[in-house]
Structures are given as C-alpha cells and as structure tokens.
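[SOLVED] Need 3D model of a two-part complex

Original post:
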Amino acid sequence: MSKLQGLLFGLATVVLVVVATFLFTKPWMPPLKSDRGAIDDAIWISLAVTGFVFVVTNLMLAWFAFRYQDHPGAKASYWHDDPRLEWGWTVATAIVMFIFLFKALGLWAQVTAAAPPDAFVVEITGQQFAWNVRYPGPDGVFGKTDFKLVDPAGLNFIGLDHTDPAARDDITLQNQLFLPEGRPVRVRIRSLDVIHSFFLPDFRVKQDAMPGMTTETWFVPRQSGVYEIACAEHCGLGHYRMRGQLTVVPPGELDAKIKEATGE
Amino acid sequence: MAQTTAGHQSHAGHEHAPQAFIWRYVFSKDHKVIGIQYYLTAMLMAWVAGLLAMLIRLQLAWPEKTWPVLGSFLKSGFSDGVMNPEFYAMLFTMHGTIMVFFVLSTAPVSGFGNLLIPLQCGARDMAFPFLNALSYWTFLPGCIIILTSFFVGAGAAAGGWTSYPPLSALRNAVPGSEIGQTFWIVGMVFFIASFTMGGLNFLTTILNLRAKGLSLFRLPLTMWSMLLVAILGLLAFPALTGASLMLLLDRHFGTSFFIPAGLAVSGQALVGPDGAPLHQGGSPLLWQHLFWFLGHPEVYILMLPALGFTSDIIATFSRRPIFGYKTMAAAMVTIAGLSFVVWGHHMFVSGMSPYLGMAFAVGTMLIAVPSAVKVFNWLATLWRSRIIFKTPMLWAMGVVSLFISGGLSGILLGQSAVDIHLHDTYFVVAHFHLIMAGAALFGVFGATAYWFPKMFGRMMNETLGKLHFWFTFVAYYCVFFPMHYTGLAGHMRRIYDPYQYTFLKELQPINQFITISAFVLGSSQLIFLANLLWSAFKGAKASDNPWNAGGLEWTTSSPPGHGNWVGEIPEVFRSPYDYAVPGVEADHVMQTDPAPVGERDPHHGH
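Solution:
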C-alpha cells in the first residue's frame, strides 16, 4: 500500500509538471497591440525562471516520494542541520529575487512615468455600467463638470457644465473610444459612483477608476483595429456587461471617426 | 517561562471534568472540546461555502443554460431557471468571506490551535479557559449572523469579500448592499472579537504555560506557527475592526470616511434635500489600506498553521528530524514580519502613488525568500528519509506541492508592472487558491488525520482517507491550475457571464473543464464527511502514540482526559523531532526521554 502511494505521488507530480509546462508554452495572452512589450517580456522571463524552479522542485519531490519510501531494512539518515547549505540556498534565492526586483522596479518606473507632453489626451469616466469617453475638443481643454448636473435622460452622463466655455467643444461618447495609432495616449480616469477598473487586455493596460480621484495611465496603441474595454473591478450587478469598444485608427482618420460616432 | 509542575498538579488533583452533558460538551471550558467545537463548526461552514462555489462554477461554465430544478429550490436566486446576477455577486462575496474567516482561519487556528497548544506545550488547559469558551460562543453568533444574511432584505452582501466602498457603503449601489452588508459587518465584528480572545489565550499559554524543560526552541513548529498567528491576529485585526465600524457609520449615520463628494448613483446625484452633498471628503482608498493591512497578514494566519502541521507530519512520517529546525522557525518569523509590509501589492493599480507601489513590491519579492527556504528544508527532510505513506503524510506532501505551485506565481504578481495585466484576473484566483486556500485546506485535512486520535480517541479509516486525498489532490489541481491560463488570457474575476466579451468566448471549454473538476472536488468531500463521522464513532481505538511520534502530545492517552495528563506533567528534555537518532535502537526518542542509551549526538541541548 505504501509502495503504491509513493509511486502514485511521484507519477501525479510528473504528470503535473509535464502538462503544466506544455500548456505554459502556449500563447495565452492576447497578441500585444501597444508599446508595453516590456511587460510581456517580464511575464515570459518570470514564467521561464519560475517554471524552471517548478520543474526542478517538483521532480525532486516526485523522486523522493518514490525513492525514499519505507521498505524492510530502510534506515533514515540522521542529518538535521547544515548551516552552509542553508545559507547557500537562502542567499541564492535572495540574489535571484533581487535581480527580479531590480528589473521589476525599473519596469514599474517606466510604465508609471509621466506621459509625454505631446500625448493625445482623453478622459474616461466609469459609471454603473458604462464607460463615458470625453475628448477636450479643439481648445484642448476639458470643461467643468458638476455631479449635480448629471442627467441621463438629457444624455449628460458625466454632468458636463455647458455654461463653461471650455465645455462647449468637449465631445462625449459612451462605450466607444477612438484612439490614434502610433501616438502616446494619456488617459485620465474617473468614476461617478463606485470603483471600476479600466482594462484593455490587448494593450496590457489596467487602471482603477477611483471615486473622488482622477487616476492616469498612458500608452501607445500600435495597431489599428477594434478591441474591447473591460471592467476588471467588481462594480455591481452589471459588472459583467460593462463592456466598451476601443477603435484604434490612423491619426488622420480620427476626427472623422469621432464625428461619425457622435452623429454630427 | 516554563510553568512549575506543582502548579499543574494542583489543577489535576482538584478538578474533575464536569459530568453534566451541557457543561461537558456544550458550554465546556476544556480546550479540547472547544477545539472540536470550533473545528466542527468550521467544517459545517465549509460545506456552505463549498456549495456556493459549486453554484459559481455552474454559472461560469454554462451561463446560457437554465436550471429549473435549482431555480425551484433557490427561488430568490433564479428567475425562470436562470441565475440572477445579484445572486451571483452574493455567491462569490459570501464564498470568500466564509472560507477565509469562518473556515480557513477557524479550523486550523481556533480548531487545532485550541486542541494542540496545551497538548504540545504541556499545559493542563489554555491559560484562560473561560475566555476560551467565551471566544467560541462569540464566534457562533458571528456564523449565524453571516448565514442569516442570505435571508434578509435583498439578500447577503454582494460587494465582494473585500467589501470595497463605495459599492459596500452606498446602500443603493447593489442589492446586497442594503441590509446584507450590515449583517456582514456585524458578523465580522463578532468574528474578530472571538479571534482576539483566542489570540490572547494562545499567546499567554504558549509563552507562560510550557512544561518544564520545554524551551521555545524545543517547541514543535506547529506551536511556532500558532504563536505567530496569535501575534498577527492581535496586531492586524484591529485595523479591520476600525474599518468595519467606520463603514457602518458611513452606511447608517451619515459619516464620510470612505465616500468622497461628487458621486451620482444611477444618474442621481447624492445630495440632500437642501442640495448639499450627502458625503464629502472620504476616500475609498483608505478602506483598501485598512482592509489589506489586516487582509495580508490574514492570509498568513491561514497558511502558517498549515506549514507548522506539515513540518510536524513530515518529520513523523519520514522518520527524520525536520531539517534546519531553527531556520524553519526563523523563516516563519520572517514571513510573519514581512506580512505587515506587503499589503499594498493588492493595490498596485488602485491609483495610489507609484512610489508606494515600489515599496510594496520590495516587501513582496522579499517574502519569497523565507518561503523558498521552507520548501528547500522540507525537501532536505525528505532526502534519504524513510517515508511511510499514511494519510497525514499524503496531505503534508500535498501542502508542499501546492506551496510550490502557488508560491511561484506570486513572483509574477509581486512585480507591480506585471500585475497590471494580471490584477483581478483568474491568475490571481489560481495563485491564492493554490497557496493560501489549498495549503490551508490540505493542512487541515492532514492535521485531522494525524491528530484524530487526540480528538476522538480513534483512528481515521486509512482507505477512505487515501481515496479522499487522491480525489481531492487531482481535482484541486484540475480546478485551479488552468486558471493561470485563463488569467493570462485576461479573464476577469467576479464575472457573471464572461462570454459577453469576445476575447473570453474561447475560454468557455476550459471553464467547463474547471467546473466539472470542481464538482468532482466538491463531491469527493463526501468521502471525508463519511470518514469523519464513521471514524469518530466506529473507528479503530487509537493507542497513545499510534504514529510513533516524539512530541509531547503523544505521551498522554488518546483522547487525553480532563487536565490532559494523569499525574504530573512530564518534563521535556529534547526536540520533538528526534527520529533515527544514531545508536538508539528505537527509531524515535520521545521528547520526555532524558537520555536514551547509546545516544552520541547531544544536538538536542539547544
């Protein structure tokens, strides 16, 4: 009985290692459409290193389960401390982690750095359960908003203050976002009610929409096409259908596309 | 400080167990009874939370199908056989809440902690037996309040187990946010109060009531984990207590701790009759900081006991001293310490300062080091050992396996930039179910089989135990491992119908595979239930030390009587892990054995 258990445990672990490794080599992530290739690289490097450790430690576990089973005449060794060995693997792990950390902090600094000054600016306001998109219009300035002016019946979803001159040329859309290809895009993210999370799976972009705050992120869309905007933070009953559409177009076609969408 | 044996004697000599059923088994002050009460209550809660998970999985696999039979049972959760989205939100909220607090904190800590601390420390009982009983009787109302919340108003809380405001604070933001969320808060406050009483008891007992000769470095690693868990609980839970009360005030008394001004829910600006904002100046981020200040140490509250059990079990069944005992204890202390400076890794994309994100990435990556050391030490213990594959050992090996699988994915999530893509996806669900939930659960199953003799005086059935392990082990991996892949593909958490999204449509077959595996996992727990009930009443009578283990708890009867030891409490002379000592004929030396004949290595004299 004991013999069988060790064999089974070893086999199960080997099957796990083989199947898991095989499946991890598949391209699960949606093909990247932004400039955030460094995130993908970090994921692949991390998967390779952790995958290696996963395979080695599991194979050791499998081998020990099989090899060191109790059998008549078996004797366990009496060996309970080895400071050099223990310091060795502690320091080795620490070094690997520090390398990861060093790389990770650099990447984080790069991703969270301020957007280039010439970036294309758009504002996203989450609400239960839609994404409101706003462009500042030709003046390049977002007009004032006031939550008391929110009026869904009058199609003023974000409470745009029409008495503000800067607001007059603001363009608003719902669940449709148009962005120029190849240009840095700075997204200002707000929320009208609860926490949402602006998630672009194809672009490796995710940023919470936090009520009371304006959060920001920026990236460069690299390929024209139609993509999905998802909400990644539970925001209520309709969380699952808080789905928007992102269309990336060549910069020259952007204005026409937006005009067409607003029905003007 | 070790307690004098004289103190023990007077306790044993003058007190007898109460005879009346109600005082002996219901309102008992005996740590073993309280431990079993906690354990059985947690197991009951596990069935509830597990069934909630089954419903979640059903919906994720086949959201387009109707379930008329289920709908006729769960009338408020289904309309015409289709699950309602609000019911789905309640399912995942309550699954998480119940599992994290009322099952996986309760069974290993309150259950096995209470059972084992006096037995492994050599005490007659916990330091404060009345407080201990009060702790259970505070916990139980907490459970009842949480369970009742399904049947009040619009149903149970539906804002996720993390209860992020404003969703949890604005009463009209989600149906369960009406009165269900208030029940959630009150239930949590009961839970925290009970856990705090337990923590005080744990800490006092382990520090003050150890048997003569039982220095800290002769404690089993389970005791180290309990000591640390008590400290973590006492330091971390007050943050959630405070936050919960603030949330209650926000919800019912018009304060604005977590609710900023300028909100409009369902197109209605949140203003009073006079046009002034109802809320002003609050910050939802404050809740996240307070919640995760508890929440992250909390995951180690779940996990550390399982790591302790695993060390005890591996030493016993590999018939070797645990490799690097002091390193193992130090690793747990380091993990516990670091667990207080990593909470922000739950908030990398929340909008908090990127500099904070950097600081939390540092702590998070560092915690991988002591975790890896634990794995290496377990592997070193197994090397050239003599493994006896009884059920507890299978579970302990399972913990090591899950700890490896789940720990490694943490290295991805700890890198803040990588977390941008993976945050709030199934990759995270895979990660924490493997490492935190899985390791804790497997630890509890292992501990149940291992210490069953000290709980019920009987052995658990080995065949049923092995069957249960194999179904659970294989199904557990089939459920949670594929979630890494769906997470990489971008599959968000807490999604009632993922296939509204084009990019998730192709993941439906994987979700169906996961769901079928989950049903296997769920139903194989019936084997455990049968084994538990049958063995508790009909199992083979256990001897005092059925596993030939060296620890103090194996020097008394199975189950131990009131006061734990007949006569004097034994004195301790060595480590609980003295197996395969050279020159000693028996392959284990009891902790209470002063000097076995022929022993040549005096390593035990730490």
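Edit: The longest helix of chain A spans residues 37-67.
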